[in-house]
Amino acid sequence: MGVEVRVEGLTKSFGSQNIWSDVTLTLPPGEISVLLGPSGTGKSVFLKSLVGLLKPERGSIVIKDTDIVRTSEHRLYEVRKLFGVLFQDGALFGSMNLFDNIAFPLREHTRKSESDIRWIVLEKMDMVGLQGAEGKLPGEISGGMRKRAGLARALVLDPEIILFDEPDSGLDPVRVAYLNQLIVDLNAQIDATFLIVTHDIGTARTVPDNLGLLFRRHLAMFGPREQLLTSQEPVVRQFLNGRREGPIGMSEEKDVAQVEAEMAALEARGGDQHNGVGPKGASGGDAVPPQLEPSPGLPERQAQRRRQERVARMLHEFDPATAQAIRASLPEDLLAQADAGVFAPTPLAGGRHWAAESAPAGGAAVLPGPRGRS
């Protein structure tokens, strides 16, 4: 199973330019999380901070009881072994064929024999659908194949956390759909913790267990996907509906008076209906689209049940629209337990932190609950 990543009060600047401040969230182990945000909000900077390539000025990033912001270089090197990273362009070596590109981390960081390396590389290539392409150079294949090769390379050291930096960048909608299914399939097979940075709204609506949005140098929201997809926050509605009206401007943020005038005019026209989605929520009214399931023949995602147990505990903490959408995703046994009051209320409302808690009296399942701010 993947590991939990706990981020608390993270602040990063370059000189006098603040990128983001006081970012607090927890990536639940084994689940798929997506981080959205307008261009220039520091999403890629956040990924680089998680893996220790950039050092924030304040805050903590705790992985397996190690705060990588303050740890030694030796310990940071060990923690980095938990990560696999898919970069925007795949970051392949142009002079190496796909086999050697994917084998590179194994040859650099392990003492495995070439026969073992060959077995691992071919296994990972098979997982991402690149059977028979090991002799091809990056320049001889499509952008989608390069992404998959980069993903295979990210998998060869069996990481417990995988970071995806705009994996859909440069791909047409059909290839994005195939890539999204591949991400879900991989999560079902390896049960690692995934964090995806993307601008693709289709990905955000159908792939993750959890959704977050960076805006105005802060984390505007992070929690179960239903929380953002039913949100009434103007910036969330604007971003997920892809329209001009809202706080996000062409090159800068709009002032409050302009946003209020635009939102009033939008509501007068019937909300977001002109964009083909409903006015009540960012995803189109009460309808939260189904989450992608693993392909036939693959195991069920282990994280799905853990996630269902976690959000069942959180039901009382959300507004009615979010709670209704979450209820629609829960199996009957968890709904019955939630309605019967089996789950003890969590000490604080919110979706940014989740921590394992003791089972309530009576032998109920051990369920993780939220802790932190909404």
Can you walk me through this structure?
This protein has 374 residues and is an alpha/beta fold. The protein has a domain at 5-223: P-loop containing nucleotide triphosphate hydrolases (Rossmann fold). It contains 13 helices and twelve strands. Strands 6-7-8-3-9-10 form a six-stranded mixed β-sheet. A four-stranded antiparallel β-sheet has the order 2-1-4-5, with no helix packed on it. Strand 9 (210-215) and strand 10 form a beta hairpin. Helix 3 (98-109) packs across helix 4 (114-127) and helix 4 (114-127) packs across helix 5. 43% of the residues are buried. This is Phospholipid/cholesterol/gamma-HCH transport system ATP-binding protein. It holds the Pfam family ABC_tran. Keywords: ATP-binding, Nucleotide-binding, Transport.
Instruction: Note the main sheet.
Output: 6 strands, mixed
Alpha-carbon distance between the termini? 26 Å
- Provide the CATH top-level class of the domain at 5-223: Alpha Beta
Average pLDDT confidence is 83
Please list the strands of the largest sheet in the order they lie side by side: 6-7-8-3-9-10
> Would you identify the CATH architecture of the domain at 5-223?
3-Layer(aba) Sandwich
Percent of sequence in beta strands: 15-25%
The low-confidence runs, each spanning 5 or more residues with pLDDT under 50, are 273-286, 348-374
Continuous helix count: 13
Could you estimate the helical fraction of the residues in percent? 25-40%
Beta strand count: 12
Specify the structural class.
Answer: alpha/beta
